[in-house]
Amino acid sequence: MRIFPSIDFNYTAPQLPPKLAVWYPMVMFLAQLIAFSKLTEALQFDVKKAVVEEISTGRSFWEVSRMVGVHQSTVRRWWVLYSAKGINALHRRKRTGRPTKMKNRHWQWMLDTVVNKTPQQLRFEFALWTANMVRMALEEKFGLKVSRWTAQRAMKKLNLTPQKPKKRALKHDREKVRKWKFETFPALVKRAVQEGKTIVFADESGLAAQCVYGRTWGRKGETPIVKTANSKYRVSMLAAISPEGRLHWKLYEGSVNALTFIEFLAQVKQATAGQLIVVVDNASVHTAKLVREWSKGQKGKVELEYQPTYSPEVNPVEILWAWVKSRVSRMLSKTKAEMRKNLKATLKRLSKDSELVKKFFSEQDCKYIEQALKAA
């Protein structure tokens, strides 16, 4: 029986310097040991079974160790296990390692804290959770000292992963957002159904010439360079979308003001059959006196509804803007006219794809819209 090539441990490689030649047998032994450890559990058991069978025939530990290419002490340990507990004792045992210091209360506290709080709420300097920050929080809360690696493994077991966080304004009010999603907006949908009105979400944005959204591949350790336009210019945009997948849009020179917003609302009104309820944020353009007076003058044909302050995530148009900008910015327009051309082409394609527009309402923060529509 020869599982691995036998190695003569007394062999000294003549081509190596004396100091290195001393280590040659040990290096060869380690190579074979690693080869054995790479075998599957079933194959390792077959090797161990063959070893005890050979020893049972009268071979010495030394002879069998040369046959299988593992150390003599390992062969002896297998034989002792077999002699004491039988052949099943040779199956590989799961290594448990040192028992963890963390108890159930530590695990539960870690999960609740990382998911529902920030380090700054616990009076730490930084705002993002890291393994080291979690380790420090455990020590401060419970006096429990663990390594950074222990904290990292614990978070993985809790199904926590490092992620790029979403941004929220400091003045973001969770209670107002909850009320909007589950009370105000569902009531608005029911009223719209009763009065035969169409709900649309509107917002404005802009794309600058030197903005690049997204990532590109490059050599590790060397940040790729993307050439942008030398001059600075910006194109302003307005868009309104409905849960049915309709998109209305318009491009503007300069910043959007009350007059351009009214002009856009009139365009949406003309393109939509029936009366409108337009959901917008609390930007000064939307809350301007001129805009409010114009809306009142429409006698219910164009009604403005304001979402909670500092909560852009509840408006699906924000997702539309992210989608548009990520595509147009990668085109790297060289002139303002070229950027307008690329924006027009992208928005035209999008306006013809109602299914894609509907998907903007399926994002996590906008699912409340679908739920309210189904309930109505």
Overall description:
- This protein is α/β, with parallel strands linked by helices.
- It has 16 helices and 5 strands.
- It has helices at residues 18-21, 24-37, 41-56, 61-68, 72-85, 104-116, 131-142, 148-157, 174-195, 258-271, 284-287, 289-297, 317-328, 336-351, 354-359, 367-375, and strands at 197-208, 234-241, 247-252, 275-280, 302-306.
- The chain has a 5-stranded mixed beta sheet, with helices on both faces.
- Helix 3 packs across helix 5.
- The longest helix has 22 residues, at 174-195.
Briefly say what this structure is.
The chain has 376 residues and is of the alpha/beta class. The chain has helices at residues 18-21, 24-37, 41-56, 61-68, 72-85, 104-116, 131-142, 148-157, 174-195, 258-271, 284-287, 289-297, 317-328, 336-351, 354-359, 367-375, and strands spanning 197-208, 234-241, 247-252, 275-280, 302-306.
Q: Helix count?
A: 16
Q: Which H/E pattern describes the elements? A: HHHHHHHHHEEEHEHHEHHHH
Overall geometry comes to elongated
Largest sheet: 5 strands, mixed
The total beta strand count reads 5
Strand content: 5-15%
Average residue-wise pLDDT: 86
Distance between the termini: 77 Å
Gyration radius (Cα, Å) is: 34 Å
* Assembly form of the protein: single chain
Q: Could you list the spans in which at least 5 consecutive residues all have pLDDT below 50?
A: 1-14
- Strand order, largest beta sheet: 3-2-1-4-5
Task: Estimate the helix proportion, in percent.
Answer: 40-55%
Helix and strand composition category: alpha/beta
